[in-house]
UniProtKB/TrEMBL annotation:
Gene3D superfamilies per UniProt: Rieske [2Fe-2S] iron-sulphur domain
InterPro entries noted in UniProt: QcrA_N, Rieske_2Fe-2S, Rieske_2Fe-2S_sf, Rieske_Fe-S_prot
Chain's gene name: qcrA
Pfam family, one: Rieske
Rieske domain location: 280-351
Protein name listed in UniProt: Cytochrome bc1 complex Rieske iron-sulfur subunit
Higher taxonomy: Bacteria, Bacillati, Actinomycetota, Actinomycetes, Micrococcales
Annotated organism of origin: Phycicoccus elongatus Lp2
Length: 368
C-alpha cells in the first residue's frame, strides 16, 4: 500500500499532509512564522522598591556567608584539636567519633551557607528581568560584541558588590576559607591512625574505647542472642555456636560497635581432623573459636560446611579451612581468621584464655 492509499484509507484528501511528516493535518504545511507571545510582565520585588528591604536582604545573605565561615572554622578546629578516639553518643545512632561528627557538621554548614547565600542573593538583589536578544548569525558583529562586553560590565555592577562591600567581604571569606576542608584531608589525612581500634576488642577486658588498654580477665563465651553461658559438654561434633564475650550484651551503649569486632564462631571437631598443633593447644578437646569477621572486607563469616570443615563468607566467597588455623583456601581474603584461645572454668563453662593476639577484620594498616 503506498502513501496515497494510506491517506485515502484514513479519510483525508490527496492534498492532506501526514502526521508523521511533522505537519498539521489538512493545513498544507507549516506557517512561515508564529506570533511571538512575548515575556511575562516583570513583578518588582521588595528589594527593588525599598532600600530598607534591600539592606535587610543584604544582611541575610551576609549572615549565610558568615555561617559558612563558622562551619569552616569548626571543621579546622575539630581537625586539629579533637582526638579521633573521643566518642560521643548520638540518640538513635549510637557511639561515634566526636571528631567525625564535628567534621561532618562543619562541612555541612560551610556548604549550606554558601549555597543558600548565593541563592538568596540572586533572588532578592540581583536583577531578575528577562531579556531576549534576537540573533540569527552565529557570530555577532564587532559592534554587537563590544556592546555585550559593555552590558556585562554594566549589569555586573548591578550585583551591588561595589555598593554593598559587606557582601563582597563575607562572600570572599566564605569562598576562600572553604578551600581548607578540601585541602586539609589531602595534605594531612583525616587525623591520626586508629591505632588499636581493631586490635582491642571486648575480649581484652571490656569496651574498647579511647584510653588505656583494659586489664584482661577470662570471660565466659555466651550464646548470641540468648546471652547464656556454654558448657563444653553442650558443644557436639559438627555443631556451631555464635558467641560473644560475657557482659557485652548487657551494655547500655555501643553494643553494635563492640559486637561487630568481638563476634566469634565456636565449633567442635574431631581432634584427629585438626592439622595444626597451635589450633589444638588454643582449643579444648577439639572445640575451637575463631573470629566471625572476614579478613577481606569484614563481612560476617557464618556458613560452616561440616563435611569439609570449611567456613564460607557469603559476601565474596572467601573460604577458610577450620582444620588448619582457618587459612584461606579460596577467595579474595588474604589472612586466616584470628583464633581465640579458650579453656574451661571450674564449673565446666567455656571461657577465654587470652584475647585475640592479632587485629580482627580486614587487612588494615595496623595489622602486621
Amino acid at each position: 500500500m503506498n502513501d496515497q492509499d494510506i491517506t485515502a484509507a484514513e479519510g483525508f484528501g490527496k492534498d492532506a499532509v501526514r502526521l508523521d511528516e511533522g505537519h498539521v493535518v489538512g493545513q498544507g504545511g507549516i506557517p512561515d512564522r508564529f506570533e511571538n507571545p512575548g515575556l511575562p510582565p516583570h513583578v518588582p520585588r521588595g528589594a527593588d522598591l525599598s532600600e530598607a528591604a534591600a539592606k535587610r536582604a543584604e544582611k541575610q545573605v551576609a549572615g549565610l556567608f558568615t555561617l559558612s565561615i563558622l562551619g569552616t572554622v569548626l571543621f579546622v578546629l575539630a581537625y586539629f584539636l579533637v582526638d579521633i578516639r573521643t566518642m560521643a553518643y548520638l540518640p538513635g545512632i549510637g557511639d561515634m567519633s566526636l571528631q567525625h561528627v564535628l567534621l561532618g557538621v562543619g562541612m555541612g554548614l560551610a556548604l549550606l551557607g554558601i549555597g543558600l547565600g548565593a541563592v538568596h542573593w540572586a533572588k532578592t538583589l540581583m536583577p531578575d528581568e528577562e531579556v531576549v536578544e534576537m540573533r540569527h548569525p552565529m557570530r555577532s558583529s564587532d559592534a554587537d560584541r563590544d556592546e555585550v562586553v559593555r552590558i556585562m560590565k554594566e549589569e555586573g555592577g548591578k550585583a551591588q558588590l561595589s555598593r554593598r562591600p559587606l557582601l563582597k567581604y563575607t562572600l570572599g571569606g566564605a569562598m576562600s576559607l572553604f578551600a581548607l576542608p578540601v585541602l586539609l584531608p589531602v595534605l594531612g589525612g583525616l587525623g591520626p591512625m586508629p591505632q588499636k581500634s581493631m586490635s582491642l576488642t571486648f575480649w581484652n577486658g571490656g569496651p574498647s574505647g579511647p584510653g588505656e588498654e583494659p586489664a584482661f580477665t577470662p570471660m565466659r563465651l555466651m550464646r548470641d542472642p540468648e546471652n547464656t553461658a556454654i558448657k563444653a559438654s553442650d558443644v557436639t561434633i559438627g555443631s556451631v555456636f555464635h558467641v560473644l564475650p560475657e557482659g557485652l550484651l548487657d551494655l547500655e551503649h555501643g553494643v553494635l560497635e563492640e559486637k561487630a569486632k568481638a563476634a566469634v564462631l565456636l565449633m567442635r571437631l574431631d581432634p584427629s581432623d585438626i592439622k595444626s598443633q597451635k589450633e589444638l593447644d588454643w582449643g579444648h578437646q577439639g572445640i575451637v573459636a575463631y573470629s566471625k569477621i572476614c579478613t577481606h572486607v569484614g563481612c560476617p563469616v557464618g556458613l560452616y560446611e561440616q563435611g569439609t570443615h570449611h567456613l564460607l563468607c557469603p559476601c565474596h566467597q572467601s573460604t577458610f579451612d577450620v582444620t588448619d588455623d582457618c587459612k584461606v583456601i579460596f577467595g579474595p581474603a588474604k589472612r586466616p581468621l584470628p583464633q581465640l584461645k579458650i579453656t574451661v572454668d571450674d564449673e565446666g563453662y567455656l571461657v577465654s584464655a587470652q584475647p585475640f593476639r592479632e587485629a580482627v577484620g580486614p587487612s588494615f594498616w595496623e595489622r602486621g
